[in-house]
Each structure stands twice: as structure tokens, then as C-alpha cells.
Design goal:
Helix content is 32%, strand content 27%. It is built from 13 helices and 28 strands. A hairpin with a 2-residue loop joins strand 26 (359-364) and strand 27. Helix 6 runs antiparallel to helix 7 (160-166). The protein binds flavin-adenine dinucleotide (FAD). Flavin-adenine dinucleotide (FAD) binds at residues 15-21, 38-41, 47-48, 50-51, 83-84, 114-117, 134-135, 176-177, 280, 282, 312-314, 326-329, 331. Flavin-adenine dinucleotide is lined by residues 15-21, 38-41, 47-48, 50-51, 83-84, 114-117, 134-135, 176-177, 280, 282, 312-314, 326-329, 331.
Length: 439
């Protein structure tokens, strides 16, 4: 009887262990179902602090947590590191990319798609090739290595024009990621130029933040966007609003006004992309409805079809006159909502309702903006709120302790010790500095 009961247990497969998928799997821990969590990487990534890895403040392992550790004590949640390449809804099975024996199929009773989003370049292959994104841990590491290598190269050249190019950093996109990275990069440059790099004068680097709209932080109240722009300018960042990056090469970005006007070329060896994301859609099937933003269109109970849910960035969840933004709180709430329905043994009884707990972004030392309901915080108060909230949501006591220690060290000592340049074959600037390893 026990064996039959075990066989009768439903099999829930969750694809993607980001904010949505992990929240769903955790909420199903201990439930009367077998849960299989699939992810192409073996860790959950806390993306809100990715820019701090890219600016040498945090180590990669401080913001990543292995799935197998999360579910070490679970009786019913298992993990496999695989990349899902397709779904056969009629046969109720997934295809995962070939291992030793080629492609494999994994059956499910209930499927939760939570594959998140990827960089989107508005169909411009040059931007995709010439800019560095900041969506994944390897991109953040690449950016850290690249920027530090640019400083080394600038310190080695006697040509002022070439040095200026090495020391110019163009950031595309004035949303939270672009604003946070611009502020943190300006701080890093201010800390090391003239000090660890006596060859380079303090203030000789240029950080240019380019935004197509007329203001920064479009999702926030205009006053908070204006505060972010003023704060960044006061810290030496050039903020160029209503400006688009038309194209990019290895040595320059071509900027033009959003309306009419002449293009300008800005010599820069670093162009960072934080301007666009699109859904990371594993279905590759025209049969599934998409929204205008190409996200999977789900109904008011987050269903793509009976027994198949889509949540988080990959899903278009309608709220009011638009869709919910690509942020971690909607993804987590959607994950928990789906888990509740699965625990209850059927389809969700009530439509999904999003509880907006607010949004926030940091601009740098002692400066952040936060919007919580009608409350608008900025400056030091906003910054403290930002610190507390991010520490709270970070997974694992070790990670919290290490992040807190790194923040304290950075704040009190004005020092970022993780400034190691590690060779990357994918970045020609880094590779040019470090020769091939012998053997
Ligand atoms: C730099 C940066 C900063 C951010 N800052 C904030 C912030 O401050 N606040 C905020 O609310 N939001 C922030 N976001 C947005 C937030 O990260 C996303 O909204 C959130 O991660 C969405 O959660 P998700 O579960 O939909 O997807 P994700 O968290 O992106 O997770 C998707 C998972 O699916 C896996 N996956 C994808 N495709 C496959 C496949 N085919 N097979 C197997 N696995 C797959 C991926 O490996 C990944 O682990 C930030 C994003 C970035 C990139």
C-alpha cells in the first residue's frame, strides 16, 4: 500500500531556480508531491547585488547559493543541472539538452516554467557583440576583469588619447541596474586612481551613463529619478538623457539624440549593456501565446494551459492596464501562489493578486531611492532601507555575514580588496594582459 501511495504521488517539475522557481520549490518542500527542480546552473543567483561583483566589492560566491545545499534536508525536492530545450505539452514531457547519451526526456504531471529573462539588444548584433552585459555571474566577472585590465592598460600607455579611451566607461540604460553600476563604478575609480594607480590622476576617468528617455529610473517617481541624476552628476558621472547608443565598436560608442540631431562618437574601451531584457523562453513554439513584450501570456491564474504554469520574468501577468514588471517580488509571489495551488491538489481557486511592497535602487555610498506605497525615501534613509532589505533577502547566513563584512570594510576603509584580474579567453582586453598559462 505504501508503495502504491508513493507511486501515486504527483510529479511537479520546475524549470529555473531563480526568484520565482526557488520560491515555488521552497513552498513545496514537505508537500505530498515529488518536486524536480531543473536549472542550467547549479546555484541560485541574487541578481540585485551582481553589480557589486562587477565592481570588485563582493566575491561571486557571496551572492550565489547552490541548489543542492538549499534542499539538502528535503525529502521531496530534488535538483538536476540540465538545460531544458523544449516541452511536449501533449506527451507531458520536457526535452533536456544532451548529456552523455544525447537528449533526454523528463515527464511531469505539473510543470512550472520559471526561466527568467536574457539580455535583449533590439535586433542590433553589433551591440550584442561589442557591449558587456550584466545579467549573469560570468558577465559580472568578465566586467570586473575587463575594467581592471583597462586601468592597467591605461597606466601603461604614454599616449593621452589612448589612455582616455581606456579610462572611458559608457553604460547604456538608466534603469536601476545602469544607475547602480554607474554609481559603484565611479566610487571604485575614485578609490583607486591616484592611490593604487599613482600613474593615473584622480578624476581622469570618465563614466558616461546614457539613457534614451528624458529621465533616469523610469519606474520610479520623477523626483526620485531627478535625485538619482543629481547625485550621480555630483559624483562625477556624466548623465546623458534622451540619448541613444546607435552602435558600438571595440573602441567607441556612437551616441545620438533621441529626436533629431547630430551623432557624437565617444571613444571608450568599455561599453556596458543594461538597456534591455527579454524573456528567456525555452518553448521555441509558435503555438503558445505571447504578449507584445514576447513574454508567455498566462491567464489570471498564471496558467499557460491546464497543469502548466509560467511565472516570473518569462510570464506576462496582467495587472491593471499593463503587465507586472520584471522584478523579483512578482516572481516570488507568483512562485508561492502556484505552490499553494499545487499543495491544495488542484487548479488555483482564486486569481493571482500581486501585493506591491515597493521598489528601490541604490546610487552609491549613503544614497539610494525607495518607493514603498505612498512613501518615497531617498538619501541616507533610502540607503539604510536598501541595505537591510537586500541583506534580508540574501540566501544563507554565511552569505549575509560575508556581504555585511564586505560592506563594512568598504564603508570604513574605502577599499575594495577583490581587485583580481583573472584571465578570460572571452575578453580580448584581459587576454592581452595575461599570457597563456604554460602547459
Ligand atoms: C543586474 C540585475 C539587477 C537586478 N536588480 C533587481 C533588484 O534590485 N530588485 C528586483 O526586484 N529585481 C532586480 N532584478 C530583476 C530580477 O533579477 C528578476 O526580475 C528576477 O530574477 C526574475 O526571477 P525569475 O525567477 O523569473 O528568473 P531568474 O531569477 O532570472 O531565474 C531564471 C533561472 O532559470 C534558469 N534557466 C533559464 N533558462 C533555462 C533552461 N532552458 N533550462 C534550465 N534552466 C534555465 C536560469 O539559469 C536561472 O537560474 C535585477 C536583474 C539583474 C539582471
Amino acid at each position: 500500500m505504501a508503495a502504491m501511495a508513493a507511486m501515486a504521488r504527483k510529479r511537479v517539475v520546475i524549470v529555473g531556480g531563480g526568484f520565482g522557481g526557488l520560491a515555488c520549490a521552497k513552498a513545496l518542500d514537505g508537500a505530498d508531491v515529488d518536486v524536480l527542480l531543473l536549472d542550467a546552473r547549479n546555484y541560485h543567483l541574487f541578481t540585485p547585488l551582481l553589480y557589486q561583483v562587477a565592481t570588485a566589492l563582493l566575491d561571486p560566491s557571496d551572492i550565489a547559493y547552490p541548489f543542492r545545499t538549499v534542499f539538502r534536508r528535503s525529502r521531496n525536492v530534488r535538483f538536476r543541472q540540465v538545460r531544458v530545450t523544449g516541452v511536449d505539452f501533449d506527451a507531458r514531457r520536457l526535452t533536456v539538452a544532451g548529456g552523455e547519451h544525447g537528449d533526454e526526456h523528463i515527464p511531469y504531471d505539473t510543470l512550472v516554467l520559471a526561466t527568467g529573462s536574457a539580455n535583449a539588444y533590439f535586433g542590433n548584433p553589433e551591440l550584442a557583440e561589442r557591449t558587456i552585459g550584466m545579467k549573469h555571474l560570468d558577465e559580472a566577472m568578465r566586467l570586473r576583469n575587463h575594467v581592471l585590465s583597462c586601468l592597467e592598460r591605461a597606466a601603461q600607455t604614454a599616449d593621452p588619447a589612448e589612455r582616455a579611451d581606456w579610462l572611458t566607461f559608457v553604460i547604456v540604460g538608466g534603469g536601476p541596474t545602469g544607475v547602480e553600476y554607474a554609481g559603484a563604478l565611479a566610487e571604485l575609480l575614485d578609490m583607486v586612481l591616484g592611490r593604487d594607480f599613482p600613474e593615473l590622476a584622480r578624476g581622469s576617468a570618465r563614466v558616461v551613463l546614457v539613457e534614451g528617455a528624458g529621465r533616469l529610473l523610469g519606474a520610479f517617481h520623477p523626483k526620485l529619478g531627478a535625485y538619482a541624476a543629481d547625485t550621480l552628476r555630483s559624483r562625477g558621472v556624466e548623465v546623458r538623457l534622451s540619448t541613444l547608443v546607435r552602435t558600438a565598436t571595440d573602441r567607441a560608442a556612437v551616441l545620438s539624440p533621441a529626436g533629431d540631431g547630430e551623432s557624437v562618437t565617444v571613444g571608450a574601451r568599455t561599453i556596458v549593456w543594461s538597456a534591455g531584457v527579454g524573456p528567456h523562453d525555452p518553448l521555441h513554439s509558435e503555438a503558445v501565446p505571447r504578449s507584445r513584450s514576447k513574454r508567455l501570456q498566462v491567464d489570471d491564474r498564471l496558467r499557460l494551459r491546464p497543469g502548466v504554469y509560467a511565472i516570473g520574468d518569462v510570464a506576462s501577468v496582467t495587472a491593471g492596464d499593463g503587465e507586472l514588471p520584471m522584478l523579483s517580488p512578482p516572481a516570488m509571489q507568483e512562485g508561492r501562489y502556484v505552490a499553494r495551488a499545487i499543495r491544495a491538489g488542484g487548479e488555483p481557486a482564486e486569481p493571482f493578486r500581486y501585493l506591491d511592497k515597493g521598489t528601490m535602487a541604490t546610487i552609491g555610498r549613503r544614497a539610494a531611492v525607495a518607493e514603498v506605497g505612498p512613501l518615497r525615501l531617498r538619501g541616507f534613509l533610502g540607503w539604510i532601507t536598501w541595505l537591510v532589505v537586500h541583506l534580508y533577502y540574501l540566501i544563507g547566513f554565511r552569505n549575509r555575514a560575508l556581504v555585511l563584512a564586505s560592506w563594512g570594510w568598504d564603508y570604513l576603509r574605502r577599499d575594495r580588496p577583490i581587485r583580481l584580474v583573472v584571465r578570460s579567453r572571452f575578453d580580448p582586453v584581459v587576454a592581452s594582459l595575461i599570457p597563456d598559462e604554460p602547459g
